[in-house]
Amino acid sequence: MDKNLYSFILKYSLKQQVIITVLSVISFVPYYYYLSMPKTIVNQGIQGKDVSFPIDVFGLGLLNLDHTHYLLLLCCGFLALVIVQQAFKYVINYFQGVAGERMLRRLRYELYARILRFPLPTFRRTSQGEIIPMVIAEVEPIGGFIGESFALPIFQGGMLLVIFAFLLLQNPLMAMAAVALYPIQFYFVPKMQAKVRALGRERIKNQRRLSDRIGETISGIPELHTHDAAHPMLAEFTRRLSISYWIRVEIFQRKFMIKFLNNFIQQLGPFFFYAIGGYLTIQGHMDVGTVVAAVNAHKEMGAPWKELLNHYQTREDVKQKYEQVVSQFEPEGLRDAADQDAEPAEPVSLAGPVAISGVSFHDDQDQPILENLTLSLPWPSRVAVVGDHGRDEMLQLLARMQAPDRGKVLINERNLADLPETVAGRRLAYVGPSSYIFNTTLGNNLFLGLRHRPMIQRQLQGAERARFERELGEALASGNSPYDPDSDWTDYAAAGATGPEDIVEVAIAALRAAGFDEDVYQIGMRGTVDPRRRPDVAERVLAARMAFREKLSSGALADLVENWDPARYNSNATVAENLMFGTARDATYQEDNLARDPHVLSVLDAVGLRQRFLQIGYEVAGTMVELFADLPPEHEFFQQFSFISSDDLPDYKELLQRTKPDALEQLAEADRVRLMSLPFRLVLARHRLGHFNEAERDAILKARKIFADTLPAGRRDAIAFFDPDKFTVSSSIVDNILFGRVAYGQAQAQEKIGHVMADVVEQMQLRVPIIEVGMQFDVGIAGARLSAAQRQKLAIARALVKRPDWLMLSEATATLDPRSHAQVLKAVIEARKDAGLIWSLQRATDCELFDIVVVIEHGRIAQCGPYAELCEKHGRFKQMLAPA
Q1: pLDDT tens-digit profile of 668-694?
Q2: I want to staple 383 with a disulfide (CB 3.0 to 4.6 A). Which of 315, 373, 558, 838 is the partner?
Q3: Phi and psi dihedrals of 802, rounded to 5?
Q4: pTM for the complete prediction?
């Protein structure tokens, strides 16, 4: 990046700056006439001085005007000049805004691109709380300044000169009086503003520390709760806020003093004009029109002078910000942009031996981690690395994630230091002990290593095509990425697939090797399918429903599921589900909103259940309070039986204490809604509280028909009704196949149903489509909706699916239980039997399946050889195998 702000501006926006400058200069001509017009209006248009009427305006006898019409013509001319002047300002400001925004966009893009090229140690020294504000907030003023960097001083300075020239032509004495105090203002204000800028920089530094502390607090919130450490954190935060407060107070003092000085000097101009101009008018040396024009011109002078002062102050501040940001984004070891952009003319393979020669690596404090490391590994081979510290760093060096301080790392006779990321990032893969999962779908995370450039461009037509070309043009003008983010970026060939049709099969193989396929399958079973997009899957799910019902219709399995039947009450479903006989597609008919919905209430009135619901709600609340009031919130009974959370229980207790059973109708609407919401959550077979007798259940069945028949047309899409012959849109795949509710109290019901359903899924060849649905699952921020073990499995599968020449795993299964660890270890070794695999392991006993074992001790190679050979030798490895 250019270290000088003006070099950066001229390099990327010279054309725009020239256009704005030319427009600014042209605008000075109409502006001069705009200043002189008031004098003409007063002297000629009003006083009729030096004019005889009727007046021949153009001197050609075409337009002869009397006094009044001549005045109106001059006023219209003044209005026209105002419009022309404002039009120039509008166009100039528009071009300034566009130029500034493009440059700001370019600057942010460049900073973000640099973050992607930062060496790893930079992120250990610099927190997110420092980097993010610089990219988002701190460069914002730079963009605004860039647009006006040349145009504003030229435009405003030119206007100032035009005004001064005009005053000089009217009366030199008044012109000198108008600018007499400007040198004093120009000298003192910047000096005072320099201190304000210095305080502003201190404030920004403190704001970064505040951001860093807030981010740290959010990341460590479990530990703060665990150790009751809130008050020390609040005290530290208070100190930071205090620093910001006193800085702001001092800024206010100096800032408003500058404002006072500017305003005072500005108001001295009219004082001199009225005094000097009035005196000269009285003495007959000046006419009234000249005084009016001079006062008006001086009034106009204030705006450009103030803009010039502000521009000077802003320029110094922005230059310093720019230089500060640039220095922060040029850490030692920053990779060149070509490292990410250089596409090799021919495919580069790293399917060859590894040769490490004389490699040394130090940490941020220059403490040695690896010293004089020399190692050769054949291709293909599966290598286990054990020992003490330095193992992870060695694998990061082999994955080209870090660069050695000394020595060389060669793979397939190619020096990794000379390879761009476009080669290393595709032919090598690394999985650490805690890999990051991005806030997108599971599938997007899985295929991350296959997406380097758009492979299949979107086909756009008409307005959509024009909109894309416009966006592309702006992106190129701003130096941004030219690629369409909505195109298909997946390199199917790199994964061994031919296209979107068979990529899922490849993905499933990687998921299976990582022990994650069953997890994704279960996630997919809980997911939903849009039958309009995937009618084939919806049809197979309906077929699976029929097959599932056939399997359950005989023998001991018949009572495991209570199916949905339009003519029967389902005792294993909630009252809400029985009433609607469907599932809510949005918030309108969710359980918590039913008691306040006018349509639902009218249906309950129609069958005489509204008052009964209120009474049952009161009784249920009393029962819940009585049963659960003394239980701790984490008690298992809350999960099994209560439909009032432990947090809401005290509120219901307080409501019951001030409510009498014979005065329920007199309750406030909010209290009635809270009580009436409870019956909708009842599951009669599960809760067994004695409510809803047979007659009341029949009334709910009657209400079910009324509810569906009278549902307003605008709400038809708010509910997906159950239909034995149709796919229920808002229900999960498992609920669509089940088409009912599991009978409560049946021994091992879930397990038995799971086996039957698994058979049906295999029979209908639904497993692959279900895993596809699972791959559309949104994993949340940093994969928060997945467990730690699932995140690691996903990271391993992500590395496997791109089929790297060498795969480096550093304690990648540390979060898995021993059984899962053993399964994944064996599966990955099998999957990499014809390629390169280097695995840093915690336990020496896991090395038996590997071809070569490397033992690191104190940052050096202590032993290297086949497992069986090292087991026979006396050395560090044999000591590690010995039981503790």
Answers
A1: 888 888 889 989 988 888 888 788 889
A2: 838
A3: -90, 0
A4: 0.79
